[in-house]
């Protein structure tokens, strides 16, 4: 974020350099994780934060002073690799492994440790967790965040509610969609109530908001899962086709990582979730157990959405006005008790 960095250098000194982990996921052969090397902005927040304090914290989240060419040692079990951060400060873990990760029924959270090395000295260490589905997972859940889990206001005029929600509110003061936590908790346990189905949360929000959104999910007791966001650097221009964009690419990667696991997809009609999910269902036949799309009050948008769904005659998409409708459909299809 060059503009934020320029302002930061004018008004502030350099901060300690840290590694900010962003979670990840693994299967029996591969490990995928991501982190970022940047200066520690020392953001401190509480539920009592005023709108001004929340705005200041939001500025600090986007005023990232990323560090290029930093050496980071990554350790997972007995495997150690060394990576160098790119020009945006990111390091991407994409590596094979041969160790036994998870032979238990429940989801296993695999520890991953990052060590920042400067001048041959370890200056910062942090341990994160990577999701590894257990043997009793009946299906996975991939859910959009924006206006599916958390109210963002994307459909508001001039997106003014997005600005208020994102910059002036503490994560605990954000509003989850009514009934979403109950629905997701039931999906987590599956039709017999004893499964441990893995969750993947997606958003087009930047990685700068990762900790903020994780705090929201924890505060409202949503099922623990991997949260995948996107880079908003100036070089990452908006792609013309959604097939080249963040959500489609990440969902495809998840399904390819777990080829024997079916999935439930949950999104909303405000964005392109319906189109993305329909195309995913076409490219991964017999892998999608259900698609849920929350409706919007925008009648013109809903006409377009319904037309697209009707044209996809071989793909079932359940439009839901409220969570009660999703619960009924899920019970009927033996996804929840």
Automatic annotation (TrEMBL):
GO molecular function: phosphatidate phosphatase activity
Domain Phosphatidate phosphatase APP1 catalytic intervals: 139-294
Any Pfam family the entry gives: APP1_cat
InterPro entries the UniProt entry points to: APP1_cat, Mg2+_PAP
Listed name of the protein: Phosphatidate phosphatase APP1 catalytic domain-containing protein
Organism: Kordia algicida OT-1
Highest classification ranks of the organism: Bacteria, Pseudomonadati, Bacteroidota, Flavobacteriia, Flavobacteriales
